[in-house]
Amino acid sequence: MMSAKTIVVLGGGSGGIVCANELRKKLGGEHRIILIDKDEEHTFYPSLLWLIFGLRKPEQIKRSLRALTKKGIEFIQGEVTEISTEKKSISLNRQNINYDELIISLGAELNTKAFPKTPKIFNFYCLEGAKLSGEAINNFSNGKIVIFIGGMPFKCPAAPYEFAFLIDSFFKNRNIRGRISIEIYTPETLPMPTAGPQIGNMLKQMLESRQINFNPEYKFKSVDEGKIYFENNKTADFDLLFVVPPHTAPEVVKKTNLINESGWIPVDRETLKTKFENVYAIGDVTTIKLPGQYKTDKPLNLPKAGVFAHYQAEVVAENIVKEINGQKPDKRYSGNGYCFLELGSHKAGFAKGNFFATPSPSVAIYSSGKIWHLGKIAFEKWWLWKWF
């Protein structure tokens, strides 16, 4: 009789939810699956942009993580204060939990310290900030809107561009688009650079065709009430500033010996194993070097997005199950991913491809239309039904 295992999943985002579900479904009841998150609720982040424009209410895109208990997954709400790979234990809420297998899916944290709290500056990458962004846009009728990407890497590389298209569409519907300018400032060379120069240039042209100014290679220095300062001694004025704050690994991860010089957890790109036995990391908290590149001196990393966390979670869960059942853990993550791209007016684009392809990632974009927008709605409904 094999001994019962305790498998701990840290983080209730896309990757953690899928991993815990798959493990529970495929393993016998003698094995414990524990999911830990600091929040009691899961927020479906791909729908935040719809929330900003009044198309969703917060309760429509949130689910209680306690709902997982009816499937036989143990849920503990609490802030993880220590991950000890030596003792194979997790500390939280003044208790220690020992694990046999650990999956770290804690995501990326947003560093908002550099951005003053003023009625003109908004972080649209969190639920509270998205609500406030929506109110600000609703009450705005004249002036300059700046969308600013505060650092690399950041999750969901399409989101700032989708946001720009949706703002454009919103003010066109109000017949006041001519009174509003929309600018994007980013450290990137092109939109969604990992998808390649062809898609990047196409997106840039789409932005420009809608009078959205794209300003590449702008690195953030500081910001005050109405002006943003960049490292190249340039500045930009704004009436409303929407920020993608710089992303970092969570504090508890930074304190471990799991991270490398990038500040994230390096993993084997196919198995998601870390350098420690029985410890995996998936999703935004990881850094994965891609085998291909577009320019010889420009190495690429896998972007941070829910779709990657989802696929990686399936791989890790299946391999852990196989190992426990005495089989060969031979499932591999292939580098596939996809992304919907909201364009406004109930239309969307769709890109998909293989990011592990060589000599460079192989990504295709499909012609935009209402079908992809409906596809994104269907995906949201399926996701919230399937995993909860």
Structural overview:
The protein is an alpha/beta fold and 388 residues long. The chain has 2 domains: 6-108 and 249-333, FAD/NAD(P)-binding domain (3-Layer(bba) Sandwich), CATH 3.50.50.60; 110-247, FAD/NAD(P)-binding domain (3-Layer(bba) Sandwich). It is 25% helix and 28% strand. The protein is built from 8 helices and 25 strands. It has helices at residues 14-26, 48-52, 127-138, 159-173, 197-209, 251-254, 306-324, 370-386, and strands at 6-10, 32-37, 41-43, 62-64, 74-77, 80-84, 89-92, 95-98, 101-104, 109-110, 121-123, 143-149, 180-185, 212-215, 220-223, 227-230, 235-237, 240-244, 247-248, 265-266, 279-281, 286-287, 336-344, 347-354, 362-369. The strands form 8 sheets. It has a 5-stranded parallel sheet, with helices on one face. The longest helix is centred in the C-terminal third of the chain and has 19 residues, at 306-324. The chain starts with 5 loop residues before the first strand and ends with a helix.
